[in-house]
Amino acid sequence: MTRARFLSLLFALCAGLAGPAGAQQSEPQSPPPKAPRDVVWESHLADFEQPDYDRAVEGLISAYEHALGRRLAPGFRLVGGKVTNRVGLKVYTDSGPGLETPVPMVKAVIGALERRGYQNRNIFLVGLNQLRLRMTGYLPSLVTGVTPFVGNKVYVLESGRYYDPVWFYESPLPERFDPVFAAQQTEGVSPVTTKEQDRKSFLATPLFLDADFWINLPVYTDHPVLGVNGALVNATLWNASNTARFFRSPANAPAAVAEMSAIPELRQTWLCTIASLQYYQFIGGPFFNSLYTRSEPVVWLSDDPVIMDSLMRARMNSWRRREGFDDISEDIRTLEFAEMLGVGSTRIKNTVMVPVGAW
Question: Fewer C-beta neighbours within 10 Å, C or N terminus of the chain?
Answer without folding.
Answer: N
